[in-house]
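Slide 14.
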Amino acid sequence: QVQLKESGGGLVQVGDSLTLSCAASGGKISDYVVAWFRQALGKEREFVGVIRFESTNYARAVLDRFTISRDNARNTVHLRMNSLKPEDTAVYSCAAKSQHMSVLEREYDYWGQGTQVTVSS
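Slide 15: predicted structure.
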């Protein structure tokens, strides 16, 4: 089964950009639907965006600021985050499933451990 590992989190300033990566092992990430979720302290996990082949879908809160892309040669999916806001502060996790896109975390079978993103004002 596929294992996922996120990287690229850190502390940034308001308006900065950051790219997170989700690296897969034990399987081809191109075979999976891959989503990003985030969980802020004291809040429920929420959907950020998803990619299936080259099609993407985003949560309204990040639309036009965040972009998901694939790098199949590196077996990795990236989350490019622009114009970061304090409310983007959260632990970001990638998750994978087969077949169809979904915004529901319960439908994802494989998860990474998460990476912290902190946006300071």
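Speaker note: The longest strand covers residues 18-25.
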